[in-house]
Design goal:
The chain has about 230 residues and is an alpha/beta fold. Bound molecules: farnesyl diphosphate (FPP).
């Protein structure tokens, strides 16, 4: 049974992670170069994320560039890095205008100075006290994040969930309630491995550039029908 998203008793996930897969196939299906798919993928981010924020989602984490993406052919890596440099600011403008905070997670030291400057600029536009966060994972890998958090915990002298979580990029963000992966594959691919402990997983064959707000609404409805026990009876 699907629940009605307009109902007052709806549970909206506090934090959604999105693995935006399928850009390359979207382009190939249209006899276009893969880079055209990435461009279409970027265009699709603001409408989908804006819709999630409108529904009351407090945090959206986007898997935009993984540590493994660096191993793709250098021409494709160049396109992706170029898109980040050129499109990140325009893409985030509307999200910032909605009052959301935009942050970047991952090892940014990989990126050239001009791209790092763009990341810093985007984050500098954040205002204090924003209730919603858009977290863009760039040169991000879940295992690397876990190692980083382990180092933070070890440095603090006590290894507890609390000291460990302080070293996660998502520190201070709500629990990851839901992960969406477009593009047909059913795996996490090194995305938010620690945070995914109790996430509800949603997989769709839809390729990321074609993923729209209606399908997101369908997933939000289904989220409400899932019984979450967090290991308890
Ligand atoms: C997966 O599609 C997608 C990516 C590797 C990158 C996603 C990145 C973006 C949408 C752009 C990021 C840019 C900004 C400005 C945030 P794929 O290439 O693996 O598709 P395929 O599985 O069909 O080959």
């Amino acid at each position: 049974m699907k629940s009605d998203l307009s109902s007052e008793n709806i549970r909206i996930p506090a934090h959604i992670g999105i693995i935006m897969d399928g850009n390359g196939r979207w382009a190939t299906n249209r006899h276009l170069p893969r880079t055209a798919g990435h461009r279409a993928g970027v265009k699709n981010i603001t409408p989908v994320v804006s819709h999630a924020l409108e529904k009351g989602v407090r945090c959206v984490t986007l898997y935009a560039f993984s540590t493994e993406n660096k191993n793709r052919p250098q021409t494709e890596v160049k396109t992706l890095v170029g898109l980040i440099k050129k499109q990140l600011k325009p893409m985030t403008r509307e999200l910032l205008a909605r009052g959301a905070r935009v942050i970047v997670s991952g090892d940014r030291s990989y990126f050239p100075d001009d791209v790092q400057a763009v990341l810093a600029e985007v984050e500098s536009e954040n205002t204090d006290g924003a209730a919603q966060t858009v977290n863009i994972a760039l040169n991000y890998g879940g295992r690397a994040e876990i190692l980083r958090a382990a180092a933070t915990a070890a440095q603090s002298g006590e290894i507890t969930e609390q000291s460990f979580e302080r070293g996660l990029y998502t520190y201070g963000m709500p629990e990851l309630d839901m992960i969406i992966r477009t593009g047909g594959e059913k795996r996490l691919s090194n995305f938010l491995l620690y945070q995914a402990a109790y996430s509800e997983l949603f997989f769709t064959d839809t390729l990321w550039p074609d993923f729209g707000t209606a399908e997101l609404d369908g997933m939000l409805s289904e989220f409400n029908t899932r019984t979450r026990r967090f290991g308890k009876l």
